[in-house]
C-alpha cells in the first residue's frame, strides 16, 4: 500500500476578512434611516385645505399619553439626528480607509497604482478639499486615483445630506389638538373657550318679526356707512382677487366700501352683487385647532324703472305688505308681494336661495322743474343662506366659502367639531343636514314673546325675508311713513313735527348722504306750545315736501340699490344676532376656540421629501457598496493608516525615502514610478510592496500573526 506524503502547511499569509465594516454599517444605517422615517411620520399628511403643509391631526384630539408619546418621538428624532451628524464623517472615512486596503492590494496581474497614490489614500485625502487644487497643479500630477475621487464624492454626499435636510425640513411649534380641546370629550377640568353662538335654523324660524323690525327701524335712523360693521365678512372669492385683497381690512368692514364700489362708474362694479355676507359672529372669528361651521346670509338688490302701468293693481301674495300716502302734492304706493310674517327658508342646512320683490310708485306734483320727479320702481332682492367653515388652523386661518351641501354624518363626526347644545331637543352630537330640534323650539315659543310692546297684534308673526323686513321697517307700523300716511290737518302735533322729534327718519345719518339733509330741515322746526315756528306754513304741505324729497332719492336706481343694500344688511344682522342672543341659553350652538398644545413638528414639502429621500438612498447605497467591496478580498490590515504605511516604507531605498538624519525632501517623482500595490512575493508566502502575486479569496486564513511569530509582511 502506497503512502501519500503529508499535505504541506498553508502559506503563512496573515490575510483575513475584517468585521469592523459590518459593525460600522449596522451602527450608522439606523442613525440615517430611523430619524428620517420618524420625521415623515411626525410630519404626517398635510391639512386638506392648508397652504403651508402643516400637519393635520384627527379632530377627535390626542390623549395626554398621545401628546407625551409625540414629544418623546420628537426628542428621539432630534437626538438621533445630532448623533448622526457627528459620526457621519468619521464612520464614512473609517469605511473608506478599510476599503483603501482592498484597493491597494494586487487583485489583477495588470493592476497599477503608484506608491504616491497609495500614500495619498493612506493620508485619507478624500476628506481634504485642498487635494482638488493640488491635483490640477503640476506638482500634484500623479496623486489622483479613481478611489480618491469616489471617496471624496461619498464624503461630500454624506456631509451635505444633514445641512440640506435642515434647510428643506423646518421645525415649527405646531398647535396640536388634544382631548382638552374636544368639546364632546374632555380629559381635564378645562375645555375650549366659547367665542360666540350660532343660531340654529329652527331658532331662526321661530324668532318674531317685531323684534327684528324694531331694531332695523332704530338702526336705519342712526346708521352711518362709515361705521365699522363687526358682523360683515368679505366673501373668500372676493379676497382671492389680488387687487381687491390689498384694501385696508378695516375699510372693508364698512358699508361705504361696498357702496363706493357700486357707485363708482370707473370700477364697473355696479352690475355685480356686493360680495360680502353677514353672520352672528364677529368678523375674523377663529376656532383654533377646532373645525366648526357658522350660518351666513348675503343679500343684494337690483332696481329698474318700469312704466306705471306695470305697478300691480292688486299686490299679489297670501299676505303682501302694501301701504300708501295720498296728498294733493304727493302720492306714494308701496307693494311687497308675498306673505310677511312667515319664515322663508326650510330647516335644511344646505344652501338656499330666496328672491323678493318691491314695487314703489311715486307721483310728485310739486313744481320742482324736474321732468323725472315721478317714477315707478321695481326692485328684486336675492338672498342666499348657507353655512361656511370658520377660520382655523387647518385652513391656515382663512375661512371657507359657502357650502352647497352640508357634510354627511360620517364626515361631520370624523372631521369637524360642531356640537349641538345639550339642552336642545335632539341633545348632544354633531348637527345633521336637517335641523331635528324643531319640536323643542315650538315648545318654547313663549320665550320669544319678550320682545317690544306691540299694539298691532303682530307679536306672533315670524321673521320674513330681508327685503320684506326692510319694507316693513321703512313703511310699516311705527315707521315715519306710517305717521305720515295716517296724519291729517287735525293731527296734533303735526306729523312732520312728530317725525322730526322721534328721529326715526331712515338714512338721515349717512356720512355721504344719497338723501337730502333732513337734519337741517328738522332743525328749522321748533315747538312753541304746539304751534309751528314757520309762519303761514301748511303742515301737510311741509310733510309732503319732506316725504317727496326723501322718496326722490329712490328715483336713481343706483341710490335705491344702495339704500336697500344697507337696510337688508341691517335686517340680516338683526335676525342673526337677535336669535343668537335669545337662544344661547338653551338651544344656540356654541362656537368654541381650542388653542391646542404647542408641539415642535417638522414641516416639509413633497419636493423636499423626494430630494432628501434620494440623498439618503444614495448615501446608504454608497456605504453598502463600500462594505460589499471590503468583503471582496481578505486584507492584511484593518485600515491603511500611518503604522501600516511605515511598515510599507521600511524596505524603500534611502534615495527614495531619505532618513530624517540626512534631511532633504522626498522625491515625489520617484514615488510616482514605484509600484504601490501590496501583493504576494515570489514564494507566495508573504506580502511585499510591489509583490507580483495576486491576492485572492483562497488566501484568507484564520492564523494569527502571534501564533507564527511573523507579521507576514516581507521587508
TrEMBL record:
Keywords, sorted A to Z: Membrane, Transmembrane, Transmembrane helix
Membrane spanning stretches: 20-44, 82-103, 147-164, 606-631
Entry protein name: Uncharacterized protein
Organism encoding this protein: Penicillium patulum (Penicillium griseofulvum)
Origin organism lineage: Eukaryota, Fungi, Dikarya, Ascomycota, Pezizomycotina
Amino acid at each position: 500500500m502506497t503512502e501519500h506524503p503529508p499535505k504541506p502547511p498553508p502559506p503563512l499569509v496573515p490575510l483575513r476578512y475584517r468585521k469592523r465594516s459590518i459593525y460600522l454599517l449596522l451602527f450608522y444605517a439606523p442613525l440615517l434611516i430611523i430619524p428620517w422615517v420618524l420625521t415623515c411620520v411626525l410630519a404626517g399628511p398635510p391639512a386638506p385645505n392648508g397652504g403651508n403643509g402643516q400637519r393635520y391631526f384627527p379632530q377627535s384630539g390626542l390623549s395626554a399619553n398621545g401628546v407625551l408619546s409625540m414629544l418623546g418621538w420628537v426628542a428621539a428624532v432630534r437626538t438621533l439626528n445630532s448623533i448622526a451628524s457627528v459620526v457621519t464623517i468619521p464612520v464614512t472615512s473609517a469605511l473608506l480607509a478599510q476599503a483603501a486596503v482592498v484597493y491597494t492590494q494586487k487583485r489583477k496581474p495588470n493592476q497599477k497604482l503608484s506608491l504616491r497614490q497609495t500614500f495619498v489614500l493612506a493620508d485619507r485625502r478624500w476628506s481634504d478639499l485642498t487635494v482638488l487644487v493640488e491635483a490640477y497643479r503640476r506638482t500634484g500630477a500623479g496623486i489622483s486615483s479613481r478611489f480618491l475621487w469616489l471617496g471624496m464624492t461619498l464624503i461630500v454626499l454624506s456631509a451635505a445630506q444633514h445641512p440640506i435636510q435642515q434647510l428643506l425640513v423646518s421645525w415649527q411649534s405646531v398647535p396640536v389638538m388634544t382631548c382638552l380641546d374636544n368639546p364632546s370629550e374632555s380629559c381635564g377640568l378645562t375645555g375650549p373657550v366659547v367665542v360666540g353662538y350660532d343660531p340654529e335654523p329652527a331658532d331662526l324660524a321661530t324668532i318674531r318679526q317685531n323684534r327684528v323690525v324694531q331694531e332695523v327701524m332704530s338702526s336705519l335712523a342712526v346708521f352711518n356707512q362709515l361705521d365699522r360693521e363687526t358682523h360683515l365678512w368679505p366673501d373668500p372669492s372676493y379676497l382671492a382677487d389680488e387687487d381687491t385683497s390689498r384694501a385696508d381690512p378695516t375699510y372693508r368692514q364698512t358699508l361705504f366700501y361696498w357702496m363706493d364700489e357700486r357707485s363708482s362708474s370707473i370700477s364697473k362694479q355696479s352690475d355685480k352683487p356686493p360680495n360680502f355676507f353677514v353672520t352672528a359672529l364677529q368678523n375674523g372669528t377663529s376656532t383654533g385647532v377646532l373645525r366648526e361651521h357658522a350660518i351666513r346670509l348675503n343679500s343684494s338688490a337690483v332696481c329698474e324703472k318700469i312704466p306705471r302701468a306695470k305697478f300691480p293693481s292688486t299686490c299679489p301674495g297670501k299676505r303682501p305688505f302694501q301701504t300708501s300716502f295720498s296728498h294733493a302734492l304727493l302720492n306714494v304706493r308701496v307693494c311687497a308681494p308675498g306673505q310677511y310674517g312667515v319664515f322663508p327658508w326650510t330647516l335644511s342646512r344646505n344652501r338656499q336661495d330666496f328672491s323678493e320683490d318691491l314695487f314703489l310708485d311715486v307721483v310728485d306734483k310739486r313744481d320742482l322743474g324736474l321732468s323725472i320727479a315721478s317714477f315707478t320702481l321695481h326692485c328684486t332682492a336675492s338672498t342666499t343662506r348657507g353655512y361656511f367653515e370658520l377660520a382655523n388652523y387647518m385652513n391656515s386661518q382663512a375661512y371657507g366659502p359657502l357650502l352647497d351641501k352640508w357634510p354627511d354624518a360620517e364626515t361631520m363626526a370624523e372631521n369637524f367639531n360642531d356640537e349641538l347644545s345639550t339642552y336642545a331637543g335632539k341633545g348632544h352630537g354633531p348637527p345633521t343636514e336637517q335641523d331635528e330640534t324643531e319640536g323643542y323650539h315650538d315648545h318654547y315659543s313663549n320665550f320669544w314673546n319678550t320682545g317690544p310692546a306691540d299694539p298691532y297684534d303682530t307679536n306672533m308673526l315670524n321673521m320674513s325675508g330681508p327685503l320684506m323686513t326692510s319694507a316693513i321697517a321703512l313703511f310699516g307700523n311705527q315707521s315715519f311713513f306710517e305717521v305720515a300716511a295716517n296724519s291729517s290737518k287735525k293731527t296734533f302735533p303735526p306729523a312732520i313735527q312728530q317725525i322730526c322729534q322721534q328721529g326715526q327718519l331712515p338714512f338721515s345719518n349717512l356720512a355721504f348722504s344719497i338723501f337730502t339733509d333732513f337734519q337741517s330741515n328738522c332743525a328749522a322746526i321748533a315747538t312753541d306750545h304746539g304751534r309751528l315756528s314757520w309762519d303761514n306754513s301748511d303742515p301737510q304741505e311741509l310733510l309732503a315736501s319732506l316725504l317727496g324729497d326723501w322718496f326722490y332719492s329712490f328715483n336713481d336706481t343706483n341710490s335705491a340699490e344702495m339704500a336697500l343694500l344697507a337696510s337688508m344688511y341691517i335686517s340680516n344682522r338683526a335676525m342673526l344676532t337677535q336669535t343668537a342672543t335669545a337662544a344661547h341659553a338653551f338651544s344656540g350652538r356654541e362656537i368654541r376656540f381650542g388653542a391646542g398644545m404647542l408641539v415642535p413638528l417638522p414641516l416639509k414639502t413633497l419636493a423636499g421629501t423626494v430630494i432628501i429621500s434620494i440623498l439618503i438612498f444614495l448615501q446608504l447605497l454608497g456605504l453598502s457598496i463600500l462594505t460589499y467591496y471590503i468583503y471582496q478580498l481578505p486584507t492584511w490590515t484593518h485600515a491603511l493608516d500611518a503604522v501600516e504605511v511605515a511598515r510599507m516604507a521600511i524596505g524603500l531605498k534611502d534615495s527614495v525615502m531619505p532618513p530624517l538624519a540626512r534631511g532633504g525632501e522626498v522625491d515625489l517623482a520617484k514615488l510616482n514610478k514605484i509600484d504601490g500595490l501590496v501583493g504576494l512575493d515570489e514564494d507566495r508566502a508573504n506580502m511585499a510592496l510591489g509583490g507580483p502575486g495576486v491576492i485572492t479569496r483562497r488566501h484568507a486564513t484564520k492564523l494569527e500573526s502571534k501564533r507564527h511569530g511573523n507579521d507576514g509582511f516581507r521587508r
